[in-house]
Design goal:
Layout: E1 2-4, E2 24-26, E3 29-31, H1 34-40, H2 47-55, H3 59-65, H4 69-73, H5 79-97, H6 99-107, E4 113-115
Parallel strand pairs: 1-4
Antiparallel strand pairs: 2-3
Helix pairs in contact: 1-2, 1-5, 5-6
InterPro entries: NADAR (IPR012816), YbiA-like_sf (IPR037238)
Pfam families: NADAR
Protein name: NADAR domain-containing protein
Length: about 140
């Protein structure tokens, strides 16, 4: 398998926190990272909040933004039902628009990709391989 997660280590480009010189264009707007798009999509019904997230400087800031109580309460009701589709939409755009990232991704075939961290057991492997590794 190919393990990735930490900044400065191989394949960090596969993470949603990767900031590239070329922003990703999704739904007609430029996004600094796929994390920006993913987190902003929690507020698809609220264009003001969505734009606030899009304008944040770093993916880490987007992650923090959605955890503030008021923002958490404002999250779209169907988020758990749509989050996988939102992630797939973001990732498809990221790798289809950027030739360098597309080439990197294709070179990983046929090895499985594992987002390796104990900080997430849904999108990652949970650090011990028991996570769902949905990313």
């Amino acid at each position: 398998p190919i393990y990735f997660y930490n900044k400065g280590e191989p394949y960090y480009e596969l993470t949603n926190f990767w900031v590239d010189e070329q922003p990703v264009v999704i739904d007609g707007k430029e996004w600094k990272t796929t994390e920006h798009y993913f987190q902003a999509s929690k507020y698809a019904h609220d264009p003001v909040r969505m734009e606030q997230v899009r304008q944040l400087k770093s993916p880490r800031e987007t992650f923090a933004y959605v955890r503030v109580a008021d923002n958490k309460a404002a999250r779209r009701q169907d988020w758990q039902d749509v989050k996988d589709d939102v992630m797939l939409h973001a990732i498809r755009h990221k790798f289809s628009q950027n030739e360098r990232l597309k080439t990197l991704l294709l070179k990983t075939f046929p090895r499985p990709l594992v987002e390796h961290t104990d900080k997430d057991s849904y999108w990652a492997d949970g650090g011990d391989g028991t996570g769902k590794n949905k990313l």
